[in-house]
Design a protein that fits this description.
It is a single chain. By secondary structure, this protein is an alpha+beta fold. The chain contains four helices and seven strands; from the N terminus they run αββαββαβββα. The relative contact order is 0.22.
């Protein structure tokens, strides 16, 4: 039985019990520094949310999501309805210079503890961190900040093994630094805008 379990674990096809929940270390410094900053590309960020290149502070939130199994593209990840795990505020205040970042107030970094993965059904799961401007509590999630035209951003995808307790929680190995800004409008958002304009014209008439 032990040999069979080892084979299943090594191939990533362990069937988890419905009530089983692994844990992950939800921060961006345990496996190497991966700070989050505001993009410096002109016209692609909201200046009201902080200056270009700034380390993001406590007016930003990091959200952790996962899907079961190994996923290598953003489209595939999104299509699987990612499961929310936890939120964490960034340290410090949004800004640039020596008073910020790893050598200053810790802005650009967050620590969300070791949350459990409710809904985990496979040994390998794929994680993504999504960061967004919370407006000091004005916005409750990534989608609200995006819809309001504020800075948002997402990390690289991280397929990682996650064992059930009593196994130790592991870090987000492979997490890379990333930026927040205003993404290009999606087709859905453009369509919604078109509908709103048509309704406005209809009302004016």
């Amino acid at each position: 039985m032990r040999k069979l379990l080892l084979i299943l674990v090594s191939t990533g096809v362990v069937v988890f019990e419905a009530h089983g929940q692994g844990r992950i270390i939800f921060d961006n410094f345990s496996s190497g520094f991966a700070p989050v900053t505001i993009t410096t590309v002109a016209g692609t960020f909201n200046p009201a949310d902080g200056p270009a290149g700034a380390y993001v502070g406590s007016n930003y939130t990091a959200s952790l999501f996962f899907v079961n199994g190994t996923v290598s593209t953003q489209a595939a990840f999104d299509s699987l309805n990612p499961i929310w795990v936890a939120d964490a505020l960034f340290f410090g205040t949004t800004g640039t210079g020596p008073g910020h970042g790893v050598g200053g107030d810790g802005s650009g970094f967050f620590d969300g503890g070791t949350p459990s993965l409710s809904g985990q059904t496979s040994f390998i799961v794929t994680f993504q961190v999504r960061s967004w401007y919370n407006g000091n509590g004005l916005y409750a999630n990534y989608a609200q900040a995006l819809a309001a035209g504020h800075n948002v951003g997402a990390s690289n995808l991280l397929p990682l093994p996650v064992s059930l307790p009593p196994g130790p929680a592991g870090p987000l190995t492979g997490l890379l630094p990333f930026v927040v800004g205003i993404p290009e409008p999606s087709t859905i958002l453009l369509a919604a805008l078109g509908v709103a304009v048509l309704l406005l014209f209809h009302r004016l008439r």
